[in-house]
Amino acid sequence: MAGQRALLLGLYPCVLMVFSMLLPLKSRGQTCSNYSFPSNQAFGSCTDLPYLNSYLHWDYHASTGKVKIAYRRPSVDTSKWVAWAINPTSTGMDGAQAMVAYQQSNGSVRAYTSPIDGDQTKLEEGNLSFDVSDLSATYASGEMTIFATITLPAGNGTTVNQVWQEGPLTGGGTPGPHAFSGANTLSKGSLDFASGLVGSAGKGGDSRLRRKYIHGLLNAVSWGILMPVGAMVARYLRVFESADPAWFYLHVACQHSGYIVGVAGWATGLKLGSESKGITYAVHRTIGIVLFSLATLQVTALLIRPKKEHKYRKYWNAYHRAVGYAVIVLGIVNIFRGLDALNPLNKWRLAYIGVLMVLGISFLCLEVCTWLIVLRRWRRSERPSPSQAAEDKVVRGYGYGAGGAINGIFRTQYSM
Q1: Looking at residue 119, what DSSP letter applies?
Q2: Within a domain: residue 29?
Q3: Same structural domain for residues 316 and 278?
């Protein structure tokens, strides 16, 4: 009973972890309204931009038609550039008038303007179609901030199409191409400097990003949580005779639930892939197909499982374990490949790393408990039963001694 309690206590964190993953995580610990600039600058309005963990602060002066802005991007390292832009003619990057900033190799921060004429821009310096003054940038405590005063483009009123972006620096220390997936494709919208109203990148884009998150969540729960928990149930509950056959049904329930959820995640991935013309994730897609094929084979193999006493059962068991562990490993690897492609807030990656840590600790604890139980049973099996001890006593009484019956027989034979 003590061993069962220890095992159940080890499984409890796994169950709790599965349910906690389904709860919404706190979105951000910081908002623009509670931020104070180190330089004691103050802005009358601000907004939390919906993508790339960014913020925009501004002061609009109706009399002059000018806007003083500060674009902030926290938690960015020195290997990246950031940019904020207004697009007077469209809603995307093509035609945007950008203000770019990054830290140079000598430690100074460079800020400059760059008119963009396509998605493959190199962010070369140039004049914008509207006036920009007081342009500067700072980098401190992992946060890049662009300051500028702009004159709103004529004919747009106080509402503009804004675009914000980030990407890596090349080996030469110049801006390189940004990612063309996830939040980088949706970091745009409208902004009314007078009223503060902010528009999104469009319902279609929001819907697609939502489906990407659903795809990631389904696969993380199925391949990354339910499958490993099901394997742990089979490995550790089966050591208890009283848990047979309950452990088997619990194992099957976890694996089949994981498979069903995984199929839903796999299907959404195929749909997203068909909609992403020109954007492919070959490795992520290939692993996903192999993973789905192995999982399907694993589920259907239950239909041909030999009985316990069958001579081929040991080979089926070896195959079942090998494919099962392969599914778990490939699932975890592909979850991280998906996180790299989606590029969500860092909290999602940290959350899944936390899940793996809990699974790993639970595995170690349960492994130790299982071996202790097995060793204790082995020691018991080595001890003679009461009836066997009485028989040994009788044997010793007949002169066979500690050597047992065989030695006694030889002694009797030679004494005759």
Answers
A1: T
A2: no
A3: yes
> How far is the C-alpha of 15 from the C-alpha of 257, rounded, in Å?
14
In whole angstroms, give the CA distance from residue 300 to residue 162: 52
Sign, Cα dihedral of 295, 300, 306, 307: positive
In terms of DSSP H, where are the helices of 222-345? 227-236, 246-275, 282-300, 313-342
Q: What pLDDT was estimated at residue 226?
A: 92
Mean residue pLDDT of the chain comes to 80
The CA-atom distances, in angstroms, between 398 and each of 270, 386, 401, 409, 415 are 80, 19, 8, 11, 14
Indicate the pLDDT class of residue 406, thresholds 50, 70 and 90: very low
Domain of 301 in residue numbering reads as 2-24+205-381
Q: Which residues are annotated as a binding site for heme b?
A: 215, 251, 284, 320
* Tokens encoding 202: 């469009």
On whether both 249 and 375 belong to a single domain, the answer is yes
Are 272 and 219 contacting, i.e. CB atoms less than 8 angstroms apart?
A: no
Report the binding-site residues.
215, 251, 284, 320
Please give the model's pTM, rounded to 2 decimal places. 0.50
Report the run of H or E that residue 98 belongs to, with start and end: strand 97-103
